[in-house]
Amino acid sequence: MLHYQVLNIVLFIQNNSKNITTNYTMFRPIIFFCFVNLKRMTTPTLNAAPYLKGDFSNVINHDIVKDLLGLTMLVYDYSDKFSLDSDETIENFISKNTDSEDEDLDLDVTDERKEALNKLSKTSPQGKVVKFISDPVTDIQAGITISELNKRITVIFRGSESKSDWYYDLMVLKKRVLKEDYENVYVHSGFYKQLHDTDVYSQITDILIQLKDENPDYNIYVTGHSLGAALSTLFGFEIAHKFEDNINVISFASPRVGNSGFREAFDKKENLQHYRITNDRDIVTAGPMILFQHVGKNIALSPDKCRIFHTYDYNEWWKFSLFNCWRVSDHNVDLYYKRLCEHIW
pLDDT (tens digit, 9 = 90+) per residue, 52-71? Predict the structure, then answer.
């Protein structure tokens, strides 16, 4: 389908060369789209091994990212298809639900999620679910877990699944936040309302305060996919103003959350770190486009490579626009996990 679109654009350019020469600025995005995809069409696909591009020497540990993505995948099924008993460890849960004959995990979840559960039982055997929140008003769902071995407290936000989620997703007007600290920090009003319309935000922060009091040397991580990624970015920014400890946000498939003032304030917060993981042409990473900005270091996954952008040195209007990010299937969280497993740094 793509090659027909590109060839039609080529014919359009040929037939309108005089107008294009006069109004080059207007037609530049179309011409750029055409020639990039012509190059892609005429370049042979090689079965080369995936490779890394950029400096990964001082980047978050790959195993941590994989663990957090595993938790992010599992929050979609938690309480619906499985749940841990109070104070039950992930190791005991896996042992209890593994078939003794074929050693397969007896759960109605995808193979990728079974793999994630099995991995978590090895990397965080004493890991527990401290609290799972499912708010009936906003439909926000979030889990709080703790890993004794890794000294890690994690907040996981679930992505869009219901009509309520999409209702908040589509509220693209901006809301000013942290007015006592900033004059020009505005965020997506839907994300803000879903986080703050009920007491979910205070529930999570109260639990974090208690867990940090009991475990002062544990690190705080916040993660999520899709809508959950946006909520994790916003929540991480807000609690970085409540805690002196470092706040680590690891988001997957995040849309843009705030304006340029939000990006500036986010980047200047010394106890806040954000790795934003994206997958090839994931359409959700393209929006909302008008006057919203991405934040954090970007780790960009694709079938043949994994690239890191430590600063905003990519051609952002193109890379995370609908010209380049138009594929719905690339948004799938299980595909994110598969791609992450293929690219190890």
Answer: 999 999 999 999 999 999 99
Helical ranges in 240-332 per DSSP H? 260-268, 316-319
Share of the chain above pLDDT 70, in %: 81
Q: Measured between alpha carbons, how far is 307 from 301 in angstroms, rounded to an integer?
A: 7
**pLDDT confidence of 49, banded at 50, 70, 90?**
low
Q: Which domains does the chain have, with CATH numbers?
A: 1-43 (no CATH), 52-342 (3.40.50.1820)
What phi and psi, each to the nearest 5 degrees, are found at residue 132? -120, 125
Give 3-state DSSP helix, strand, coil % of the chain, rounded to 5.
Answer: 40, 20, 40
- Nearest residue to 297 (alpha-carbon basis) of 285, 286, 311, 283: 311
Dihedral sign of CA atoms 274, 297, 304, 52 in order? negative
Q: How far apart (Å, rounded) are the C-alpha atoms in residues 168 and 191?
A: 6
Q: Report d(CA 20, CA 31) in Å as an integer.
A: 10
Contacts of 268 (CB under 8 A, 6+ apart): none
SS3 string, 113-126, reads HHHHHHHHHHHCCC
The answer to whether the CB of 194 falls within 8 A of the CB of 140 is yes
